[in-house]
Design brief:
- Among the domains are: 79-160, Alpha-Beta Plaits, CATH 3.30.70; 164-224.
- The chain has 336 residues and is α+β, with helices and mostly antiparallel strands.
- It has helices at 7-34, 41-78, 94-107, 139-145, 163-188, 193-225, 246-298; strands at 81-90, 111-118, 127-135, 151-161, 226-234.
């Protein structure tokens, strides 16, 4: 059956219209199956406000609740603390107590770094001191366990936050590691021997600095992971006895005071004796010099009374005092 050319346009239009109708029907069926009803703009605004408030409330709960707790827990876990403790334990046998402390540290996963003990428990002179390292999370339990060894007389614990120092070391190690890697790449692509030697020298310097920082970081990590506790064990102190009182007590105290005073005087005299000797020698020299000056200023030795050069008794004699001149006559003698 042949179709005329006049009916072809009409048939094409009919096919297009039929396809459009089928598409519309399928879209309506999909809408009806899904059950989605058209929503107005006002309803959408109301739903938007309510949904926004609910979402905001949920977000606030999340921030103030679990999320905040997680952040605080993470911040606390990221802190690095160095713990150091000092304990004094009074026990009847410090030597045996030291062995118990060592066993306690090893059972807690730690170790004994130093151990010193001396004296005899029977004589009351025994003493022991240990430095132990225990895991940081077992420090409190270890300190509590010391009460089973003896009486804890003194306890001191110090915690230092070194988080800033650790972060600084980590940053410097990372920067130096990157620099070392770059220098190694430059050594591989060096174009001359001079460039190779310069890069190798710089690499050696930075590698040494990097190893030093890594050593510091490792030591700090060990201090954070293992707490240091110094335990001193002493024997039970004897009961103090009163000193004798009354007259004998006063006599003993006075005698002790006298001995202390004499000892002080002996010390003072011993300290001043060299100065006194030097001062006496200087005084003798000064005295001898002054006497010499006085003799020199006197002008020599004066003449004797019977000198023949001065028969009249010398120039300083008074008139009539010469020998036979103007002298008074003897008693009973007559004048001529």
């Amino acid at each position: 059956m042949r179709l005329s050319t006049r009916r072809l346009p009409a048939l094409a239009v009919a096919l297009v219209l039929g396809g459009a109708l089928l598409a519309g029907c399928s879209g309506g069926a999909a809408d009806s199956e899904s059950g989605a009803a058209p929503v107005s703009a006002e309803d959408r605004a109301v739903e938007g406000d309510g949904g926004g408030e609910a979402a905001q409330g949920g977000a606030d709960d999340a921030v103030s609740g679990i999320a905040a707790g997680d952040e605080a827990a993470q911040a606390e876990a990221a802190r690095e603390i160095v713990t150091t403790g000092w304990v004094t334990v009074v026990t009847a046998d410090p030597v045996a107590g030291a062995a118990e402390v060592a066993d306690l540290a090893e059972s807690a996963g730690g170790r004994v770094e130093t151990r010193n003990q001396s004296g005899d428990a029977a004589e009351g002179t025994a003493h022991a001191e240990l430095t132990i390292r225990v895991p940081a999370d077992r420090t409190t339990a270890t300190l509590d366990a010391l009460e089973q060894i003896g009486e804890v007389d003194d306890l001191s614990v110090e915690a230092v936050d070194v988080t800033g120092t650790a972060r600084d070391l980590d940053a410097r190690v990372e920067a130096l590691t990157t620099s070392v890697d770059r220098l190694r790449d430059l050594m591989g692509s060096a174009g001359s021997t001079e460039d190779l030697l310069a890069a190798e020298q710089e690499l050696t310097t930075r590698q040494a600095e990097l190893e030093s920082l890594q050593s510091q970081r490792a030591a700090l990590t060990d201090q954070v992971a293992m707490s240091t506790v110094t335990v001193s064990l002493v024997q039970v102190a004897p009961v103090e006895q009163l000193s004798p009182g009354g007259f004998l007590g006063g006599l003993e105290n006075g005698w002790n005071a006298l001995l202390a005073t004499l000892n002080g005087l002996v010390v003072v005299v011993g300290a001043l004796l060299p100065w006194l000797v030097v001062g006496a020698a200087v005084a003798l020299v000064v005295r001898w010099v002054l006497r010499r000056r006085r003799r020199a200023g006197a002008g020599g030795t004066p003449p004797s009374a019977g000198d023949p050069a001065e028969p009249d008794g010398g120039p300083g004699a008074a008139p009539g005092e010469g020998a036979g001149v103007g002298a008074e006559p003897l008693v009973g003698a007559t004048r001529d």
